[in-house]
# Entry
Amino acid sequence: MNILSQLKDSITIITDFICGYPLFILLIGGGMLLFVYSRAIPLRCFGRALKTLAEKHSGEGQISSFQALMTTISSTVGMGNIAGVAIAIAMGGPGTIFWMWISAIVGMSTKFFEGTLAIMYKGRDNRGEIQGGSMYIMTEGMGRQWKPLAVFFSCFALIGCLCTMQANQLTESVIAVFSLHESYGLKLVIGLVIGAIVSIVILGGISRISRIASRIAPVMVALYFLLVLVIIVMNISRLPDVFVRIVSEAFSLRAGWGALAGIAVIGARRAMYVNEAGVGTASLMHGASRNNDATREGLVAMLGPAIDSGFVCTLTAIPIIMADQYHVEGIKGLTIAMASYEYLLPGVGQYLLMITVTIFAFSTMFSYSYYGTKCFGYLFGMQRAKYYNYFYLMMLVLACVISLDTAISIMDLAFALMAFSTMFTIFCLAPKVKAEMRRARID
# Structure
């Protein structure tokens, strides 16, 4: 066994441990505590959150609350909603979707706290400009002595925000749909094309990214809904069984309590990648909002998990479970989804899904570059932040030629370590958010 193989196996072992029960307890257990502590704010204030989204706000920042939410959604509603959901179903069966729903609800509570803290504790970069994000929440909210934690978060964000899965799976879809002969040379060419397209947007900065994302996000969700609606209408007789299987297999004890726990962990782990509640990426975007009312921004942020890991992931799960094409060897996320759509819509299914996948993947790549740039700027100065974009583009190309399991392990591990530092911060500052809720009369 060579050194690279040993390194790959080590990363997988570490990731499987950290992203197993520890991460499940942190995100689901911690999210449930925040759900109770906030007196079920996702259920109490969902309508108010929708109304808040339409309001105009003023304050220091670079983008509006609506643009912040749409850019966050454009990053979370991506490849994870298709390939990630397919991987979850292949690994744990339809029951994993139920645990994604649970993750969506508790994730809304977590996102509320993240969004609120992002406005409460903004900081200034080395150029004196107002910035927001988990690293500023840590230093401004808990004190300068917590800067090592902020540095820890920022370092792993540089890795977690590289979009390895998106680039990898987009390359896979192109090769599969057009029945191309797979080779490193072909993957490299596809990677270079992806990098060129992404560079046009991300080198324009946050204003261009948010402007494009605010236009793409609503349209891509609506088009995806219409596509799945067509599949449902054409296969309406299969729909009731889909939801029966999701609920029944979520609590199936046929294989014992260990299997049940495994299903829950798989669903939560993939939901983490989809909605990113508690990971800290949301605060990077909502911290750039011009909203000066912290709880209103929290309400806006709360809508994210309801859309991505609630609504969009369910749209993905329905065709995959209907087609029953997910019994495969190895991790083949997008391949499963492609096979399912082609089975249900012969001749056109895989092509329609590829269009969707392409839009989803690029929208995520646009937004993630901003997250990484902010963290790079925090670590090395905003005047050097542009260099991260060049590194980011180079890694997109590299991601197209590495194996999917390695890409997923690297992303999951980085996100998990970001989540541990972010959730610790949220727990420490939760009483401050509670006080802000009382001030805003939403306690």
